[in-house]
Automatic annotation (TrEMBL):
Domain of life: Eukaryota
Subcellular location: Cell membrane
UniProt xrefs under InterPro entries: Ammonium/urea_transptr (IPR029020), Ammonium_transpt (IPR001905), Ammonium_transpt_CS (IPR018047), NH4_transpt_AmtB-like_dom (IPR024041), RhesusRHD (IPR002229)
Record domain Ammonium transporter AmtB-like: where: 23-439
Entry's Gene Ontology molecular function annotations: ammonium channel activity
Pfam family, one: Ammonium_transp
Protein name according to UniProt: Ammonium transporter
Assigned protein family: Belongs to the ammonia transporter channel (TC 1.A.11.2) family.
Length: 472
């Protein structure tokens, strides 16, 4: 086989490649992959009602595998390859040895590493979409939804915002590690798909307790720690910017978790474990578009806001806005990802430090990448408002793309296969869908009377206490 120019079989580490950068990039990618497998597999399988544990976990595992095949087959090049349109690349295979062993766009890691790193981001986006659909989507419909969405929706936002040739990238939008491309996209797409799929069974909406909160925390912990690679890997080099991004990520997340916890105690009297987990997630999501371009004090402010604003939309506005009440969003991805992702993008436009932006983007462009706060401070108010405008434009673009593409995919699929399970299957759950159950020990899971247990964060309706059965 022909190798890239200058690369021989005895040159496993060519001069252009940085061993340190490549090692960190592969490590960061694996950390992100572990957020999905096993992180979200465990979290989904344990936070749902017992009868949906297997189905929920397997939706995540299937998506991880299916996305990879689509990614190397055509979707990676549609996201990061040669331009087809200003918002989309040309579909092409990303498996040839000549391509994979050549240097990636910064010239210090091979394309094989870049393809792998970007794959785990695409995969977790689909898995987050699944969170809105747990407990009722027809698994065969999900099997078709995943490759269609990663082909016709994800590459549009990835190319537009992350590819240097993308139109929003050229405008100077700041999305450090996927607050828009991953979290806003998954939140909007999940909510849209939930609208088309329809709600869970009435009995599940009325009573949907986690089957294993301790295991849920294990999955949440993997999600949190894996975010070190999620945000720390995006400079594509071992840099001080990567270190700052990692620290800011954890500072914001801890602040958000504690803020959410305090609000739960003040308004509901109990420190909810599920609520704290939601606060953790909103903190992770909010800091993602800003991780390496804001200072530590800004990360704390962002944590306070990500622990309070999504809390308010979930616990208060959710009960007042008709559309939010009508759509059955099982894992509240609209609040934890769409709201928190939008919030992070806006706050990025306000707090991004132009000096840190130049470290990340490796450009000395004083017309872009300056937060509004620094615009006021440095006398460049016009540039600061311009950055805020670009951030808001990005939100509108991502929302419109995901509402349209997700709706079209769902409308197409329901002509082929029902989007929602039958009522009989909804009553039975895992055994009807897969012929398998998560916990054979407890049988039907109704042996423990948990009538005195309740959580304001029960997954039936946010903010309405439910009676929880510990293993149901």
């Amino acid at each position: 086989m022909e190798l890239p120019v200058g690369l021989q079989y005895d040159e496993a580490s060519p001069e252009w490649m940085s061993k340190a950068d490549n090692a960190w990039q592969l490590t960061a990618a694996t950390l992100v992959g572990m957020q999905s497998v096993p992180g979200l597999v465990i979290l989904y399988g344990s936070i749902v009602k017992k009868k949906w544990a297997v189905n929920s976990a397997f939706m995540a595992l299937y998506a991880f595998a299916a996305v990879l095949i689509c990614w190397v087959g055509w979707a990676y090049q549609m996201s990061f390859g040669k331009e087809l349109f200003t918002f989309l690349g040309q579909p092409d295979v990303a498996l040839s040895q000549k391509y994979l062993l050549a240097p990636a766009f910064l010239g210090k890691i091979p394309n094989a590493t870049m393809v792998y790193f970007q794959f785990v981001f695409a995969a977790i986006t689909l898995i987050l979409v699944a969170g809105a659909l747990l407990g009722r989507m027809n698994f065969h419909a999900w099997m078709l939804f995943v490759p269609l969405w990663v082909t016709f929706s994800y590459p549009i936002t990835a190319y537009s915002l992350w590819n240097p040739n993308g139109w929003l990238s050229k405008m100077g939008i700041i999305d450090y590690s996927g607050g828009y491309v991953i979290h806003l996209s998954s939140g909007v797409a999940g909510f849209t798909a939930a609208y088309w799929v329809g709600p869970r069974a009435i009995s599940d909406k009325e009573r949907f307790p986690p089957n294993n909160i301790l295991l849920m925390l294990a999955g949440a912990g993997l999600l949190w720690m894996g975010w070190t690679g999620f945000n720390g890997g995006d400079p594509y080099t071992v840099s001080v910017d990567a270190s700052l991004a990692v620290l800011n990520t954890h500072v914001c997340t801890a602040t958000s978790l504690l803020t959410w916890l305090v609000l739960d105690i003040i308004f509901f009297g109990k420190p909810s474990v599920i609520g704290a987990t939601q606060g953790m997630i909103t903190g992770l999501v909010c800091i993602t578009p800003a991780a390496g371009v804001v200072q530590g004090w800004a990360a704390i402010i962002m944590g306070i806001m990500s622990g309070s604003i999504p809390w308010y939309t979930m616990m208060v506005l959710h009960k007042q806005i008709k559309l939010l009440k009508q759509v059955d969003d099982t894992m509240a991805v609209f609040h934890t990802h769409a709201v928190a992702g939008s919030l992070g993008g806006i706050l990025t436009g306000f707090f991004c430090d132009p000096k840190l932006c130049r470290l990340f983007y490796l450009v000395d462009n004083w017309q872009h990448y300056i937060g509004l706060a620094y615009g006021f401070h440095d006398g460049r108010v016009k540039a600061g408002f311009k950055q805020m405008g670009i951030q808001l434009l990005g939100i509108v673009f991502v929302v419109v793309v995901n509402v349209v593409t997700t709706s079209l995919i769902c409308l197409l699929l329901r002509r082929i296969v029902p989007l929602r399970m039958t009522e009989d299957d909804l009553q039975i759950g895992d055994d009807a869908i897969h012929g398998e159950e998560a916990y054979a020990l407890w049988g039907d899971g109704e042996k423990f009377d948990g009538s005195k247990l309740s959580s304001v964060h029960g997954m039936d309706d946010f903010g309405v206490p439910i009676k929880a059965n510990a293993v149901g």
